[in-house]
Amino acid sequence: MLQWGILRLYHVFALVLCVSTSEDFDWTRNDRTSFYYGTFPTGFSWGAGSSAYQTEGAWNIDGKGMSIWDAFAHKKGKILYNDTGDASCEGYYKFKDDINLMKDMKLNHYRFSISWPRLLPSGLKSEHINENGIKYYDDLINMLLDNKITPIVTLYHWDLPQVLQDKYGGWQNVSMVNYFNDFANLCFERFGNRVKYWITFNNPWSIAVEGYETGEHAPGMRLRGTGAYRAAHHIIKAHAKVWHTYDMQWRSKQKGLVGVSLTADWGEPVDISNQRDIEAAERYIQFYMGWFAAPVFHGDYPQVMKDYVGRKSGQQGLGASRLPVFSPQEKSYIKGTCDFLGLGHFTTRYVTQKNYPSGVGDSYFADRDLAELVDPQWPDPGSEWLYSVPWGFRRLLNFVKTQYGNPMIYVTENGVSEKMLCTDLCDDWRMQYYKDYINEMLKAMKDGVNVKGYTAWSLLDNFEWDEGYSERFGLFYVDFRNKNKPRYPKASVQYYKRIISSNGFPNQREVESWKRKAVETCSSSNQLLAADPLIGHMEMVTEIVVPTVCTLCILLSAIFLMFLLRGRL
């Protein structure tokens, strides 16, 4: 007990140190240095990620309840091409095969999420626990550990039980705090003897803004100017309660860590000599990541958020700010509830000042008074929002270091997509993206940033939310048109595997050979994929149909032009 007491005091001291040693970030310094050859510290953890709804499938199998994403995706017009996650990658049935893929890659960890409605179909622990769901995650965790792969478990990756949305309005209702805590407590009870890394929420920004402000994501609510702030307020409270539950009931027995995963683009001032642009860029980050990080590390929302939302609310004739307020007791309760920070990052924006008058209406986006820009020279290999800007990653990591007292960081999501029906597995753009972004992370660690692990997003091509299956982030190609959902390794598998085995970038000669070797390896996978009858048929149809359609379009245009000319003569 004395030893545990000393450890406990050390833990508290580390948290106090973490929340009290922030410094100012130097916006005028942007070191865009050349590629750095070097390796990561011994023990650095390499992994890949997924989430339950995006990969498991089996949406109504073995007692699983409906989630908000099941309901949302089943509504026509909500998802591109009306795709759903009903089957997805069939990970519920193929997890053993997937773990073998991870083992071959020599991954140190695998990040996945537990489906709340798979364990608690009604959302409530007091009503029914689905033992089939418990067994599935038991088997997954046990096999990972048997293969020396550390499970990093996300408790909430967006799949709220639909019944809680129907009855209470989901995260608009403060009752979710206790219901989520009950679910988390069940996970600690059943899996905590083997799971030592817990993430409460993945990217709460998306849950709040896209779920309750824009309605692009489940549950599809459009509560402009209020819904996102209210949802975020309850999510932050829920995170803190789960952290305290683990701290008081489980930490001494299980010796685990509880963190939260925040996703943030970097915001760079358009003109680093212009104070208004600098202030706009910092606002961009504070309204994005700081919205959740500041309460967890400092006990309250960023001052700039309180100022701007409060001022806009006053201009709109409201009696109180649309941004909720934490009581003094809540601030104390929330502050320091983070053993590690999960950080997701994909891209960067240039940011400049732009004033939105109060007459434009309530809106999270208008509250920020800024405009986002991109450089047309930035590579954009896939998603329309995702540009490859590696130096922004180093900037973001250093910002976290200075703002939040250099917390322990696990990069929980980083990767790039292709937005096309792509059957070429030689994904050179993804290899380049991983090379450049991982190298910027290595530079940030040289700067003193406390990064402990990196998670590639994603292990497999999967269901990408409102974009359905049109965007592919996976290291492994999944043939979704085949009922067996076969996996085929892309060249980036071999490339990432070499980064892992070398623990970084040992020397220029070796690193420059990796891409060539990876492309050579992927050629055989391309042959296997081409041998798939369905893929071969698709390619044949494309070769025949596309030229035919183009020819018809030209002929019709010519006929239409003839009619126009005849009418004028």
TrEMBL record:
<dbReference type="InterPro" id="IPR001360">
    <property type="entry name" value="Glyco_hydro_1"/>
</dbReference>
<dbReference type="InterPro" id="IPR033132">
    <property type="entry name" value="GH_1_N_CS"/>
</dbReference>
<protein>
    <recommendedName>
        <fullName>Cytosolic beta-glucosidase</fullName>
        <ecNumber>3.2.1.21</ecNumber>
        <ecNumber>3.2.1.45</ecNumber>
        <ecNumber>3.2.1.46</ecNumber>
    </recommendedName>
</protein>
<dbReference type="GO" id="GO:0004336">
    <property type="term" value="F:galactosylceramidase activity"/>
</dbReference>
<dbReference type="GO" id="GO:0016052">
    <property type="term" value="P:carbohydrate catabolic process"/>
</dbReference>
<dbReference type="Pfam" id="PF00232">
    <property type="entry name" value="Glyco_hydro_1"/>
</dbReference>
<dbReference type="GO" id="GO:0004348">
    <property type="term" value="F:glucosylceramidase activity"/>
</dbReference>
<keyword id="KW-0378">Hydrolase</keyword>
<comment type="similarity">
    <text>Belongs to the glycosyl hydrolase 1 family. Klotho subfamily.</text>
</comment>
<feature type="active site" description="Nucleophile">
    <location>
        <position position="413"/>
    </location>
</feature>
<dbReference type="InterPro" id="IPR017853">
    <property type="entry name" value="GH"/>
</dbReference>
<feature type="transmembrane region" description="Helical">
    <location>
        <begin position="544"/>
        <end position="565"/>
    </location>
</feature>
<dbReference type="GO" id="GO:0008422">
    <property type="term" value="F:beta-glucosidase activity"/>
</dbReference>
<keyword id="KW-0812">Transmembrane</keyword>
<dbReference type="InterPro" id="IPR018120">
    <property type="entry name" value="Glyco_hydro_1_AS"/>
</dbReference>
<keyword id="KW-0472">Membrane</keyword>
<keyword id="KW-0326">Glycosidase</keyword>
<keyword id="KW-1133">Transmembrane helix</keyword>
<feature type="signal peptide">
    <location>
        <begin position="1"/>
        <end position="22"/>
    </location>
</feature>
<keyword id="KW-0732">Signal</keyword>
